[in-house]
Amino acid sequence: MPDLITLGWNAHFEAAFAPYREQSFEAARVALEYQGLYRVMTERDELLAEVRGKLRYTAQGREDFPAVGDWVALSRLPNENRAVIEAVLPRTSKFSRKAAGETSEEQIVATNIDTVFLVVGLDHNYNLRRIERYLILAFESGARPVIILSKADLASDIEACLREVEQVALGTPIHAISAKRGAGLEPLEDYLGVGKTIAFLGSSGVGKSTLINRLLGEERQKTQDVREEDSKGRHTTVHRELIVLPAGGLLIDTPGMRELQLWDAGEGLTDSFADIEEMAAACRFSDCGHEREPACAVKAAIAEGTLAASRLENYKKIQKELEFLESRTDVRLQQSRKERDKRVHKVFNRLKPKRG
Fold first, then answer.
1. Cβ neighbours of residue 54 closer than 8 Å, sequence gap 6 or more
2. Helix, strand or coil for residue 287?
3. 5 close to 213: Cβ distance less than 8 angstroms
4. What digits encode the pLDDT tens for the residues 11-62?
């Protein structure tokens, strides 16, 4: 088994784990999440674990439960290859999105990531607006985003695509590759290293699993051809999973995302659209809506051709989406806290000594 350093342990987690070490708990990293169960890796072995009831009762929401990539404190069950998760250590980064559907709930995709590979296919999957949304979530996560333009062998004009993506990437590294042919992979090695964690994010069929197999040097992840007419394919990865590379470093594979709905992305929006934010500072009015106001620097940039109108439209659309999500989330948090308080009081009353 890899040691803790190889699994991503560092001074941050060592300091956070100190009080749990005093209680003889063991450090482990979550590799796979099932329904109510987790596969965790320690420096001794791999085993299944479940959450302690106390942690379950005090959790305010899904974000308080373990996720793939988390470091946890656990206690082993005697004479069993199983354990109980006592606590989740503070995260250094967290990639989240709004859960699919009508509910206003956070879905944690992966945690404690150093680099996020945002994989976009240079086929029918290629979409600048989608890249902008991925960048927002990546910046908000606290991890370093890297844009991977896969299936470069299918692109008719790679240089033109690179120039387009550079306009929305704002300095984010971009690499055009063909995992199928093994082309353009050498620069990706700079992001790998002992204890470094990379998460792969992208739509279904963009080639994440093929790229991971190349980096692993073996056909571990299932791959599947996509439909030629729309470049869509079925999800070959069905679980988020932490994988240790033979030469060091860790990869987190994720299922393809049909929906990419934002979650709590205020700073991520500012970082991803820093060009528009900077232009807006030069508008005559501080609350300029960039519509028909006089002396609007943003509209002037569009007229001059230095800013695409579609980029401004996406910026406004995402702003409204986040405002709506925030209003719904506030209500959900209030309801969640009330339900948690009811559970805690119920347990307290049950345990409270009865007067004779």
1. none
2. coil
3. no
4. 999 999 999 999 999 999 999 998 889 999 999 999 999 999 888 888 877 7
